[in-house]
Amino acid sequence: MQKFTILFVLALIALACGGGEDIPAESSTTPDKPVAKEINAKKIWKVRCIACHGLYGDMGTNGAANLQESTKDLDYRINIIKNGSENGIMTAFGEILNDDEIKAMAEYTMDLKKD
């Protein structure tokens, strides 16, 4: 039973760190304006990032960076989210998320920093 539990947890982590379904951006329309896409970064975080980084960015599962203590700037974070980390620990999301979603996620991680 313990082996099954460990296997289940590992499978859950693997799916959350890089798998899962695509999240469509929510949209709103008005008669005079084209469709405006609103990006729900918190929703994307819960689906794509929480298994490794945790709810508050400080969990560090599988070697994930502690985003509360990170001093990396926005451009660095955008690059890591889009292309993955140099050491291969962070999954690349450039083919899963669009540029606006990637930027929103990078900005979201900036807000996790402890004051």
What do these coordinates show?
It is built from 5 helices and 2 strands; from the N terminus they run αββαααα. The chain is mostly helical and 115 residues long. A hairpin with a 2-residue loop joins strand 1 and strand 2. The protein starts with a helix and ends in a 5-residue tail after the last helix. About 10% of the residues have low confidence. Keywords: Heme, Iron, Metal-binding, Signal. This is Cytochrome C oxidase, cbb3-type, subunit III. InterPro entries: Cyt_c-like_dom (IPR009056), Cyt_c-like_dom_sf (IPR036909), Cytochrome_c_Oxidase_Subunit (IPR050597). GO terms for molecular function: electron transfer activity; heme binding; metal ion binding.
CATH topology: Cytochrome Bc1 Complex, Chain D, domain 2
Strand order of the largest sheet: 1-2
Please tally the helical runs, counting DSSP H or I stretches of 4 or more residues: 5
Structural class: mainly alpha
The H/E string reads HEEHHHH
β-strand percent reads 5-15%
Distance between the termini: 43 Å
Helix content: 40-55%
Unreliable spans: 19-30
CATH architecture: Orthogonal Bundle
CATH class: Mainly Alpha
Q: Report the strand count.
A: 2
Note the main sheet: 2 strands, antiparallel
Shape: globular
Instruction: Indicate the radius of gyration in whole angstroms.
Output: 16 Å
